[in-house]
Write a structure and sequence with these properties.
Blueprint (H helix, E strand, L loop, with lengths): L8 E5 L3 H7 L4 H22 L3 E8 L7 H22 L3 E6 L7 H13 L6 E9 L1 H17 L10 H5 L12 E4 L18 E4 L9 H12 L9
Parallel strand pairs: 1-2, 1-5, 2-4, 3-4, 5-6
Helix pairs in contact: 1-2, 2-3, 3-4
Bound molecules: 3-methylbut-3-enyl trihydrogen diphosphate (2 copies) and magnesium ion (MG).
Amino acid sequence: MEEKQIPAHIGFIMDGNGRWAKKHGMPRNFGHSKGAEVFKKTINWCRELGVKCATFYAFSTENWKRPADEVEGIMNLLRRYIKDIRTYAKDNVRFIFIGDISQLAEDIRLELFDIMETTKENTGFIAGVALNYGGRDEITNAARILAKKAVNGEISPEQITENSIEELLYTSEMPPLDLVIRPSGEQRLSNFLIWQAAYAEFVFMDVLWPDFTKKNLEFAVTEYSARNRRFGGI
Ligand code: IPE
Ligand code: IPE
Ligand code: MG
């Protein structure tokens, strides 16, 4: 495939862990831990295909609605994965945690900030991980920052542009989002990268995330490469 046919930035909505667990007669958190293994492998598959950046939706601002033991299980899984993330970091991967991570437990928050800081100069691949992320929350936050600047007289309302909003999004240092892949059979964004996805391509797949394979990824990328992106032109 030519380079332009390979998406620079793929967003993965890692959905279907709960249904996968149910199908195997296991607790939902078992599905989440299977899903986390696939997350690790997907980073490698993306690199092998020449993708430069991938963002993984791991926990949404709406997922706090789930039973406390499930939320707790996901947070403990994250604690365990922090070690693996550090191993990847040695492989020239830059990690950017997107979402309001200030609301996470202090031990997790400190680790995440530290990983972001220590991997800042890595150039091999950008891995975005969306934790307590909501697209509406992200845009609201940008609006609030700009409103404060306007009230303080630092900018005029006319100076608020698409670019000035974009610079305040969590993804400002990532390449534009080209492709969103959602397994699990659901066909919706569920508040994932709603601004960034304005002109992204979508591939919805019936596979549950813990069963997602490199073949599924290759299928989605091939599908993407056959799309005609017009961006409003002809
Ligand atoms: C996605 O899998 C993981 C998170 C939202 C944390 P789900 O837990 O939503 O799995 P299903 O949709 O119930 O199968
Ligand atoms: C989206 O999945 C969030 C993540 C994958 C982290 P959900 O399972 O929360 O989405 P809905 O509720 O089906 O829309
Ligand atoms: Mg789900």
